[in-house]
Amino acid sequence: MDRLKTIAVCMGLIASGLFASSQCLAQDPIETVVNAAVQPLMQSQGIAGMAVAVTVNGKQYFFNYGVASKENAQPVTENTLFEIGSVSKTYTATLAAYAQASGKLSLSDKASQKLPALRGSAFDNISVLQLGTYSAGGLPLQFPAEFDSADKMLGYYKQWKPDYPAGSHRLYSNPSLGLFGYLAAQSMGQPFDEVMEKTMLPKLGLKHTYLKVPQSQMSLYAQGYNKEDKPVRVGPGALDSEAYGVKTSAADMIRYVEANMKPAQLEKSLQQAIAITHTGYYKVGDMTQGLGWEIYPYPVELDTLLAGNSAQMTLEPHQVQWIKPPQAPKQDALFNKTGSTSGFGAYVAYVPGKQIGIVMLANRNYPNPERVKIAHRILSALSD
């Protein structure tokens, strides 16, 4: 930010009562904006610790708040590991897109072609792309409890009956995206955890991102807290790694954001993969569905972003308007994704055309609208 922008931001914060004039003007303007947004949020939502990372024109900024664990009062740093819940789906989508770019997978394949155990089921008529875009026909948000394990999940898919024709409706779903990732790993001839941790994450330059946190890194793994403020971490479930299993740090995740915004330094197949995840496949209202990412024209009104990240969008089916042929955004676009587990809340958003992005990681699952409001406020201040 230049000096005039700094003064303008500060005047707004002073007018809102968030900062005194001397306090505001003494700080770096980005720090001022982030502190003014995050500190009241943590207090109002009872969040023990947060790590926020911002990238502006290739420069990274880290802002750490509170503690990773109340038990030992260990402070949050940019290397603290947080569960990111469904933001994991963007990593899974990148793996699947890489499988396509490498000639191992076609998004147009039927699911039962890639997994013969599903032959004779509804998945004879459901494509890999439809699984990756939550449009298989009404797969639910979660697996039913009796099928929520690795040894029971195939039985669930075999007996599942669609509520809608494949490709007609979007219904956000862990079983849908999870199977998408499972098939991608199958096409590459390796278990999902292995191909993700040994191939995909290293190719992205991520050295502090895990599906299973190794013992040597457990001291950096934040303690999550649920709505009753009791300590909790994510447990095992069917296709948990594929749908919501990533644990990462703000430092590694902002690298991931930068790789998405400027993929030219990556190998060609991975550049192609990122382009595939950034492609728009269909629209629901103002939101365009990519692979993993959800996309909006930028600048975007806060109300539009809130609607696209609302409980209604997550929990209810929506008719879709397919983009034929699929295409990348034609103008500046914002890419975003929320993610939650019982004890953690994450949000990431970035605008490649402006070279700005933000990562917000918290060891409490707090409401999505609060995440979106804070990120929108910060990105808006950075975009000029």
Description:
The protein is α+β, with helices and mostly antiparallel strands. The chain has a single domain, classed as Beta-lactamase. The protein is 38% helix and 20% strand. Helix 1 runs parallel beside helix 3.
Short account of what is shown:
The protein is of the alpha+beta class and 384 residues long. It has 15 helices and 16 strands. The protein is globular.
Number of domains: 1
Query: What is the highest CATH level, the class?
Result: Alpha Beta
Strand order of the largest sheet: 3-2-1-16-15-14-11-10-9-13
Integer average pLDDT: 94
CATH architectural designation: 3-Layer(aba) Sandwich
Question: Percent of residues in helical segments?
Answer: 25-40%
How many helical elements?
Answer: 15
Q: Based on Cα principal axes, name the global outline.
A: globular
Category from helices, strands and their pairing: alpha+beta
Based on CA atoms alone, the radius of gyration comes out at: 20 Å
Distance between the first and last residues' Cα: 8 Å
Ranges with pLDDT <50 over ≥5 residues? 18-22
How many strand segments? 16
Largest sheet, if any?
10 strands, antiparallel
User: Can you say what the CATH homologous superfamily is?
Assistant: DD-peptidase/beta-lactamase superfamily
What fold name stands as the CATH topology?
A: Beta-lactamase
% residues in beta strands:
15-25%
